Structure prediction request, 308 residues.
Amino acid sequence: MWDRIKGALALVLISLNTLLVFPVVIALGLLKLLVPSVSFQKLCTRALIAIAEYWMGFNSFLMDTLHDIHWDIRGTEGLSRNEWYLVTSNHQSWADIPVVQHALLGKTPMPKFFLKQQLIWVPVIGLTWWALDFPFMKRYTREQVEKNPALKGKDLETTRKACEKFRYTPVAVFNYLEGTRFTPEKHARQNSPYKHLLKPKAGGAAFVLGAMGDQIKTWLDITICYPERVISFWDFVCGRIHHIIVDIRKIDIPPQFLNRDYATDEAFRAEFQAWVAKLWEEKDALLDELLTSFEAERTACKQGARPD
Prediction:
């Protein structure tokens, strides 16, 4: 009962904090749109990022205050707020978003997601994403391009335009390669070759590298592990998740993957997919190792606690 009360309290406080910053974010976003001065727009951008980071920091502080969470965050050495990153992660729960924000806050630029163009119309949140310069993009399927050849290359062009605002402002562009949250049902339906992961979809990451290859040279491969196997967002805000492992691997992106057109370059598409598949094999093995190690430690602790 007490955990549900704390969960409800956490959601109320996060909602109130969101309502507090929302008008300021929208006002600054509109000012940035209406005032043509580049220096003023940069000032607004810095202010908006500071507000968003305050919001994320408040949420992290709230979770740590209300709950007893042991954070095991690895691999943050050498990260910088002044570099551009492509960030990917496995995806098991909506809790993954605040977990990644907690792990990267103050260590990298603010993470930003590529969003479908239609999401700008989501009440409140859509305007907030727009004001914070989250890139909205429109993707065309292969079938659409075959029916209308004039669309060929348009997704990459649209993505590049969306990324123009990041040319002079460092950013961590976030992408979930699995495209959806892991569930046993989805895993079985895909016949996934991985034990703990769904099949990766390389297209989104390739489009980012095609649009921002002049800036992004580093890939942050994040592996999130909930070793207690309790993973829902409600469990997270209720404090039922007591141990979270976040492993961050910094990878130099091979130069041959930068500034290429994934949609039209078949050789690049095949090579990039193979490279991502290898990363996914390594991530799957790491998850297996982390879970096995945690279970062994927990078993040893239980046996050590038993009276002789």
In short: DSSP finds ten helices and eight strands in the chain. The first strand starts at residue 70 and ends at 74. The chain has one domain: 69-305. Residues 266-305 form the longest helix (40 residues).
